[in-house]
Structures are given as structure tokens and as C-alpha cells.
Amino acid sequence: MKSQSSLLVRGELGRELEARGELARAEGEFRAVVAASTGDNRTLAPALRDLGRILAGSIKNAEALTTLKKALATAGGEAASAARSSRSSPTCTDPTTTSAS
Length: 101
Known about the structure:
The chain is mainly alpha-helical. The protein has 4 helices and no strands. The protein has helices at about 5-20, 25-35, 40-55, 60-90. The mean pLDDT is about 85.
């Protein structure tokens, strides 16, 4: 498996290629990130999301929809875990809404 920083750099390259309108090259970068990220949902979910966006922009709608659903399912486990974690931590209050004693 590639290092985390290498995957992040490839993701950034994919986004830059997308910004330049080079969707085919961006798709290749995101596919490589997805392949290398298998097993690491922190990297896999955003890579799938980005790949899905590229596929939609390339009018590959069926594949885009499938990929985006995978991204949502992958992120769902991470999001649920984060939500459980935040519920168990103390809540912050807005100091502008509390009255001074």
C-alpha cells in the first residue's frame, strides 16, 4: 500500500487536472488513488467521491452513480463513528447566548 502522503498528492494532482479540464487524466489519477486506498476509508471515501464527480463530468452517469453510492457507503461508517464520538464529548455553548451571573 502506498504512503498516505503519496495518495494525498495524487488526489491533489487529480483535482488540479480536473480544474484544467483534463478529465481523462484526472480520472486515471483518482482510479489509482481508489485502488491504492482499499482498506483505508479515510482516504477511500474522498477518492471515490472525487472519481464519481469526474465520471459525472465525463457523462459516464451510471458509473458515476455507482461510484458515488460507494463513496457514501464508505463514508457512512466513518461518519457514524464520528457522530458517536461527538455525542459522548461535552457540548460547547455559545457564550453570546448565556447570561452572566
